[in-house]
Amino acid sequence: MHPFDEMYEALATHTALPEAYASSAVRSHYRTYATWLAGQSDEQMRARREEAEVIFRRVGITFAVYGAKDEDGSGTERLIPFDLIPRIVPAAEWDHLERGLAQRVTALNRFIHDVYHDQDILRAGIIPAEQVLNNAQYRKVMQGVDVPNNIYSHISGVDVVRAGQADGTGDYFVLEDNLRVPSGVSYMLEDRKMMMRLFPALFARHQVAPVAHYPDLLLETLRDSGPGGSANPTVVVLTPGMYNSAYFEHAFLAQQMGVELVEGQDLFVRDDFVYMRTTRGPQRVDVIYRRVDDDFLDPEVFRSDSSLGCAGLMRAYRAGNVTICNGVGTGVADDKSIYPYVPKMIEFYLGEKPILNNVPTYMCRDPKDLQYVLAHLKELVVKEVHGAGGYGMLVGPAASAAEVEAFRAALLANPSGYIAQPTLSLSSCPTYVDAGIAPRHIDLRPFVLSGKEVQMVPGGLTRVALQQGSLVVNSSQGGGTKDTWVLEA
């Protein structure tokens, strides 16, 4: 029996939309791959998986798990599990996604500019003013500050899921907008390199759209965002340091772009210009691709105890002498309490209907929504509006009675701090696990670059929930990653 056929039998009572199957048959864009996979033995696949793990560990592709401890009490660094079976997306589906993502990120950038300037959308009553102006991510220091090209989120990671029926019909939905310091693009690039190394023959059989040019597009976007008048802007990547969970990515992207990786102590401000210390003396910095949260960027303005940023950075930023990517205050647009309004933003700023829909969302600050959520906790996913990384959430169908009751108490104590959504039947993809090939739930994080134009490489980072039945794909919660193949037409 073909491995995919075995998996399909397992899907007979599985409500998740299978990416590889439609109406009991392999979908057309998976057929060539399925034929190849049928010729691979379990021993061959296990050997390739072990080879991938050795290479990833040698290269140092790890992430820190905050709060987790090894037996000796030290913090842990782990490999993000890599799955050998790619997620394959046909050209027409990607074209739909690409148009929807560009539309969405354009509207979000318009929204951020608006709320720090004329606030037209608030005056029109589209979004309650208190939802924005009292939001923890709204930075009053940014009011009236102009930024190049009116772009705030230069690098956006938009989490997309596909949900639908077992016959293969289904729609893409946006689950979350990550506009502050979205991570994961290095895993997208390394997963592709690994697949090309392990299975070079597959790329001769498939016309897979390339992703290796992402660092070039990123550097182009950052340079396009430089302050006016800088013909050849100097770009740096600002990292919190080697103990940050995404440090590998910070160093990787700096190396791939050919720019300096700096920490806050490497920078200083003089006469409202930013400089970095070098062995040849101070060098002016024009663009900072920051991987440091707002609160730690400038101890003169935000947390005074921060050693991760640079004193005076906001003075230089407000004066227009340096560009910070992503912009300060961008988080107001990716807060989960603002997410339900994004479709209205698209209509308000662009005069268009959304190409990609939101997941239906209950705002627990609304008494009627709260009443419904409290009555249906066991059926819903409940999230903290400021939560991230899979923390601070309840997956009702998988939760214990005690966990449900704990969330009930939290909701009653602070309803405005939560939203809730139905438990989507997320699509599943064939995944190579210890028991063989099995369906596992997935999402997709494409990376959208906004400079003088909106650009993205085809695909993104596919994250996979490796635990059977789990809907949580976050690496901090045991999720893994897959290579994402967009087939060229």
Automatic annotation (TrEMBL):
It comes from the Bacteria. InterPro entries: ATP-dep_Glu-Cys_Ligase-2, CP_ATPgrasp_2, UCP005522. Coiled coil: none annotated. Pfam families: CP_ATPgrasp_2 (PF14403). Residues 86-465 form the Circularly permuted ATP-grasp type domain. This is Circularly permuted ATP-grasp type 2 domain-containing protein. It comes from Ottowia oryzae.
